[in-house]
Amino acid sequence: MQQSGGSTQLPAISLGLGIGGLVTFWCCLGWFLGIAAIITGVIGRNQAAQRGQSPQMANIGLGLGIAALVLSIVLNIILGVSGGFNVD
User: Fold this and answer.
1) Percent helix, strand, coil in the chain (nearest 5)?
2) Which partner for 65 in 15, 38, 42, 43 could form a disulfide, CB atoms 3.0-4.6 Å apart?
């Protein structure tokens, strides 16, 4: 089912996923939400361009998704090198 006219919801979904990914980058959700924000941000940006709308919200969601993914990767590398959290 396709929308005729109007605006697409993918940029808003991408923004929400990007924010969620940044909030949860320290646990396993940051990976999934970051990747989902990137995918929906790219698709939403393309749809906005086709409809002549501003892709600003999709771009922000895309950037937040990339940031969440990068932070998750960096944190996992740090934890992998240091041996995780050891409370002695």
Assistant:
1) 75, 0, 25
2) 38
Q: How many CB atoms lie within 10 A of CB 43?
A: 17
pTM flag (> 0.70) = yes
Cα(28)–Cα(22) distance, rounded to whole angstroms?
A: 12
**The tokens of 65 are what?**
């998704």
Query: Residues 4-32: what's their mean pLDDT?
Result: 85
Where do the domains of the chain lie? Answer: 18-78
Rounded-to-integer distance, Cα 64 and Cα 55, Å: 14
Q: How long is the chain?
A: 88
